Amino acid sequence: MSALNLAPNLTGHDDLYAELVRMHDGLSEAESLGLWSRLALVLMNHIGEREVIAQAMAVARAR
User: Fold this and answer.
1) In angstroms, how far is the first alpha carbon of the chain from the final one?
2) What is the pLDDT of residues 21-53, one digit of tens each?
3) Do 2 and 56 touch, CB atoms closer than 8 A?
4) How many CA atoms lie within 13 A of 60 on its CB side?
5) CA dihedral 58, 39, 11, 54 (to 10 degrees)
6) Contact 19, 12 (CB under 8 A)
7) CA distance 3 to 51
8) Short name of one Pfam family for this protein (predicted)?
9) Hey, where are the domains in the chain?
10) pTM for the whole thing?
11) Comparing C-alpha atoms, which of 10, 12, 11, 35 is closest to residue 22?
């Protein structure tokens, strides 16, 4: 079982944030929520470890 990595692990994080914001341009609130859900599912599939995903969800919920 892998542990969730909470240490900084991105380069170009400001650019990535800007891309996330632009990704929602022109979408309704419902469309934006659907997009977030689809992105989360794609990333969860990439991670592929249920326990790591559960750790990430707990951390996100607590913040």
Assistant:
1) 24
2) 999 999 999 999 999 999 999 999 999 999 999
3) no
4) 8
5) 20
6) no
7) 8
8) DUF2783
9) 28-63
10) 0.86
11) 35
3-state secondary structure the chain: CCCCCCCCCCCCHHHHHHHHHHCCCCCCHHHHHHHHHHHHHHHHHHHCCHHHHHHHHHHHHHC
The gap from C-alpha 32 to its chain's centroid, in whole angstroms, comes to 14
Please count the CA atoms within 13 angstroms of the CA of 48 that sit on its side-chain side. Answer: 1
Token pair 């341009």 is at which residue? 25
Cα-trace Rg, the chain: 13
